[in-house]
Amino acid sequence: GGGAQSGNITVQNPITWASTRQLTLNSTGTTGIISINAPITTGGGALTVTGPRVAVNNTSITTNGGALTVTASGGGGTAISLTGATLDVGSGTGTLTATTSTTTGTAFSGINSITSTGAGSFSISATNSAAAANPAIRFSDGTQLTVTGNTSISGSDLSSYIGILFGTTNLVNTSGNLTITGSSVSNAGIQ
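RESULT FIELD:
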């Protein structure tokens, strides 16, 4: 049986492997956080990260064609936080999915980049049903996001706030198609 721990996982040192084997980081706590504070690099292997909260802090994740899947439910705070994150899947797929009923689904701050090449792609989606003033996706003031390759960003607010909220943000699309979709049941889809 499990204990009463929050389920925190911290990547504090670089993780690298040359094969196509998969690594899964799974926090089963209700308020735990998976903090990625050091680079993770695969030789084409998949990386799956699942928990209440996931934070990528001033570091990189590179899968070299492997799939990157991040799923978070937002227990105890922002579901997915990208602060100075560099995410590169090469010809693989990146899927970041946040669903929350208490706070912001996905938050961007600092200088971030998302890269896919060739047939690769990224999909970032967040759904928020919180009654408070929390958007599904938030780009904080001063955020820079550089996107390379086919990328979709989708924020849906099911309550009374905004689907995607842009602060003073620099968004750069260097190549590929960038699709941004925001929706809200009673407010702005994108603001």
